[in-house]
């Protein structure tokens, strides 16, 4: 199944984007992220998108392999930014919230699972991976990689949108091209919201869609409750012991929160 780039561009033109976003489409490439960086290094000016029908060497967070079979959405969006380095986690929060909130406007009940996943009823719908380049003390450019299950095979802990639509009897997004356009617009809307409201405003709406709020976790033999996410993108957990409670902040990669089966 190949993507119709003209249809994608038509879908983009119907959405609330402030500027035209060039799209580079491919059938199979190793990685949309890698291709986006190659285009940036060759002089292509951001913003632009790279999208592929299939990736042969896709990667998720922590270097994990991202299965990228035919039928899924695999795209990367190259952006020029001017954020200080310590604000890099804000890009993940803004992207995840932007996509989840936009898909919910299409009656798809997506929530955000820490640190970078999109879920429906606890099953993984998609993931986000962000790479940045730094100039001085600022992030000068970012490539935001997104994978969303559309009509591809998924593991037991995953879900694709076609299966979801079959279960509800209603299809609010009708093509992979439309999904791609909606996702690109969602990344921009999440980023713009963050720039206008700063991290405090973003966290307020992010937590409304936070799937792990109240989840019980075990840390070094102690039971804790997930209470939120910090402005550094860390997981906030309240630990309780006899007569005392304490809140700890866990960086990405220190704990896995699991999925429903």
TrEMBL record:
Transmembrane segments: none annotated. Residues 13-195 form the BPL/LPL catalytic domain. InterPro entries: aa-tRNA-synth_II/BPL/LPL, Biotin_CoA_COase_ligase, BPL_LPL_catalytic. One of its GO terms (cellular component) is cytoplasm. The keyword Ubl conjugation does not apply. CDD domains: BPL. One of its GO terms (molecular function) is biotin--[biotin carboxyl-carrier protein] ligase activity. Keywords: Ligase. Its EC number is 6.3.4.15. PANTHER family: BIOTIN PROTEIN LIGASE, BIOTIN--PROTEIN LIGASE. NCBIfam families: birA_ligase. This is Biotin--[acetyl-CoA-carboxylase] ligase. It comes from Pannus brasiliensis CCIBt3594.
């Amino acid at each position: 199944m190949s993507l119709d780039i003209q249809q994608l561009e038509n879908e983009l033109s119907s959405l609330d984007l402030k500027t035209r976003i060039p799209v580079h489409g491919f059938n199979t490439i190793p990685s949309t992220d890698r291709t986006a960086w190659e285009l940036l290094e060759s002089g292509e000016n951001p913003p632009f998108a790279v999208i592929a029908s299939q990736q042969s060497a896709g990667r998720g967070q922590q270097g994990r392999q991202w299965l990228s079979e035919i039928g899924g959405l695999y795209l990367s969006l190259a952006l020029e930014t001017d954020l200080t380095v310590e604000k890099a986690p804000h890009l993940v929060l803004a992207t995840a919230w932007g996509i989840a909130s936009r898909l919910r406007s299409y009656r798809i009940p997506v929530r955000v699972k820490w640190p970078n996943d999109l879920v429906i009823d606890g099953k993984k719908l998609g993931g986000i991976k962000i790479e940045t380049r730094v100039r001085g003390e600022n992030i000068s450019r970012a490539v935001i990689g997104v994978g969303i299950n559309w009509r591809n095979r998924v593991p037991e802990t995953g879900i694709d949108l076609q299966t979801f639509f079959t279960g509800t009897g209603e299809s609010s997004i009708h093509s992979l091209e439309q999904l791609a356009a909606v996702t690109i617009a969602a990344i921009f809307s999440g980023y713009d919201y963050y720039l206008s409201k700063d991290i405090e405003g973003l966290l307020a709406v992010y937590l409304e869609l936070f799937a792990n709020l109240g989840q019980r976790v075990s840390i070094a033999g102690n039971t804790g409750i997930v209470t939120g996410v910090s402005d550094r993108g860390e997981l906030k957990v309240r630990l309780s012991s006899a007569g005392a409670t304490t809140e700890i902040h866990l960086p990405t990669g220190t704990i896995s929160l699991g999925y429903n089966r």
